[in-house]
Amino acid sequence: MSVYQVKDGVKNLIKPGEKLITTHCCYCGMQCGMHIRVNEKSGKVVGVEPRYDWPVTNGKMCPKGVTAYQTIDHKERIKTPLIKKNGQFVEATWKEALDLIEENYKRLQREHGKDALSVFGGVSMTNEKCYLVGKYARAVLGTRYIDYNGRFCMSSAAGGFMKTFGIDRGSTLPWPELEHTDCFFMAGTNTAECHPTSIQWLWKAKDKGAKLIVADPREVPTARVADVHLDLKPGTDSALANGMMHLLIKEGYVDEAYVAERCNNYEELKDSVRKYTPKYTSEITGVAEEKIIKAAHIFGQSPKSVVMFARGVEQQTKGVDNVALYSSMALLRGQVGKFASGVATFTGQGNGQGGREHGQKADALPGYRKINDPEAVKYISGVWGINPSEMPKEGVSAYEMFDEIQRGKIRAMHVICSNPAVSAPNTEYIWDGFKKLDFMVVSDFFLSETAEFADVVLPATSWAEDEGTTTNLEGRVIRIRKVVEPIGESKPDWEIFKMIAERMGKGHLFPYNNAREIFEEFRIASKGGKADYYGITWERIEKEDGVFWPCPSEDHPGTPTMFKEKFGTPDGKANLAVVKWQEPGEIPTPEYPHILTTGRVVFHYLSGSQTRRVDFLMEQCPLPYVEMHPELASQYNLLNGDKVKLTTKRSHMELEVRLTKAIRKDTIFVPYHWGKELAVNQLTNPALDPTSRMPEFKVCSVKIEKI
Ligand SMILES: Nc1nc2c(c(=O)[nH]1)N[C@H]1C(S)=C(S)[C@@H](COP(=O)(O)OP(=O)(O)OC[C@H]3O[C@@H](n4cnc5c(=O)[nH]c(N)nc54)[C@H](O)[C@@H]3O)O[C@H]1N2
Ligand SMILES: Nc1nc2c(c(=O)[nH]1)N[C@H]1C(S)=C(S)[C@@H](COP(=O)(O)OP(=O)(O)OC[C@H]3O[C@@H](n4cnc5c(=O)[nH]c(N)nc54)[C@H](O)[C@@H]3O)O[C@H]1N2
Ligand code: SF4
Ligand SMILES: [Mo]
Q1: What start and end residues bound the annotated signal peptide (predicted)?
Q2: 471 pocket-lining for ligand 3 (C-beta < 6 Å)
């Protein structure tokens, strides 16, 4: 971390013989501002300095961010293409790798049709690359089968926002305004560990007297300092939100004028929440009645409040409902579209916002257009230079692609920037799917658990070896800068798409020489869509500390606050959610009597493919474990450090017990950042939300046995 003073700005951070390159952290949606220190002589990265003048993160970074630079020049980086021969990877030239890809793709297309190929994308890439993943799948391979890891991440938030507000922008307000918020209602977000640098806004607000309500089955760090901790049973958020709204209405906390003018369904909502008395809500959620009542009074009396949530409420089979219901709490209070108040989901991955707007999703085209909308198909076909009749139809969601592998429909998969062998639910099914494929390609810069299954591994560049843009969790489009030259023979993902396009006879569709040219095309592709980037230029981003979409023209200021006058729905009104609580996909049974939930720790990122390669982070957290309340542990005679076998309907695994009182007595928690026999996703339930197709990572039923 920095030992330098801020007062002289950037100059003071530069050491003789070094230069600083200003960019953003590669990991979470906070996209913390940072400078990478590069030795001018060797061109090598030697360290990092937080960026104090970045308005969203103000010089704060977390343990992952300050060590991220160590992955750039890491000894395990893949430096050449790899081809599997007799079960072993051997180094190959680009020509050999591309020959093999061309031969197999063309053969499979000939024998089984274009839908035999598939693409599994990811959103740790820049907007420019994410945009091209969709174009590569649809215009080059001609397949309907494309989806991406955001299906496991942001799809329920997206679905809930679309339903409620008509536009899915993760935050309705810019983060620095949070300093002036009077009340934070935070559900299913472990903010201190997962978006650590946003905590500063909470502290600043708390110093001014802001109140904090936390809804989480675990006493996460924010819950420890909360005014009320609603320690709900996993899978009961919709009951809690309905119970809160019951009280807001009963106690007269509704902003009646706002609701009458700007919202639909108020009468239906009143009917629907009538039975969610504190008593009934408490019976379902397991939260004490007094706590629910206290939370409703605090929330109802706060002039400026935000409702914030994350995967805890979204990664459920009722994830879309949960998002719509929690958002409706803010609408009842008239909070959306105003200063220092509103609704926000903590977007997960670095480009989790941008990456979900540009057409990596089975049903989406760039600019948040729909692939089943003929006008959208016509427009995007025009931008791409293809005939609208060539545009493939809607495909299926990420997990459901593995069903298509089992059915023999999908024969080949190109996984780009994701590690589903660790991160998808019910991993044994995923592993089996990979083995069944006739041909598999992975683009990554490390040999991930997924890459191990591939026939060909293509060395992509890391986040520091190419430039472009990302969109942070506020909806602010920002610049990622190139820090060093690509290592070995690695190439940016867009160049890889271009080379494959040329081999498939579609080189004319990928005429780009650099990321900037892609951005210019993408501006036009997004123009007129819900996520309109047309008015955003790289120069503006630089000058204005990022630009918020929608931004339809170069003289438009961008949109830091959403929905000031109207919502994105056809009638301009928000839709209050009228939904009853329903049970999660699995409820405890005598055979599987407890609830398993999964999530994160501060030291690791997602599948761990990057952070498990950083010594400092591994020293802090080398292995997964299971968090358990001492009372539950005593039922099984378990002490801290004992080994247990966990079994669900899918599979079983062994883990070390970590006793803590900071979790419900009926629930256990396992972090998911490890692979193979250490992957908790061997156990998780692949039941999907009916609209978002998001798997229920957060709730399943489990058996505990002492070993
Ligand atoms: N350190 C770290 N930070 C990260 C990441 C990482 O891997 N590591 N990943 C990034 C990404 S992609 C994402 S998506 C975000 C995720 O950020 P978060 O969603 O904050 O993280 P999780 O740990 O998945 O889950 C959050 C909380 O949900 C709670 N929870 C479980 N079940 C329920 C339930 O039924 N209801 C409610 N209300 N809460 C429940 C868990 O106890 C947990 O504390 O983090 C981003 N930041
Ligand atoms: N049990 C459980 N499972 C979960 C979750 C949970 O809470 N519980 N959360 C889910 C969520 S929210 C998410 S986001 C997913 C994420 O899961 P994954 O998609 O598996 O996420 P990563 O580990 O980031 O995998 C990205 C891979 O791409 C590589 N990579 C990074 N940048 C680039 C690039 O620019 N180009 C290329 N080609 N490769 C790159 C990295 O080295 C890494 O191997 O996991 C989901 N799985
Ligand atoms: S909070 Fe997120 S973006 Fe910031 S340093 Fe940590 S991982 Fe990187
Ligand atoms: Mo995520």
Answers
A1: none
A2: no
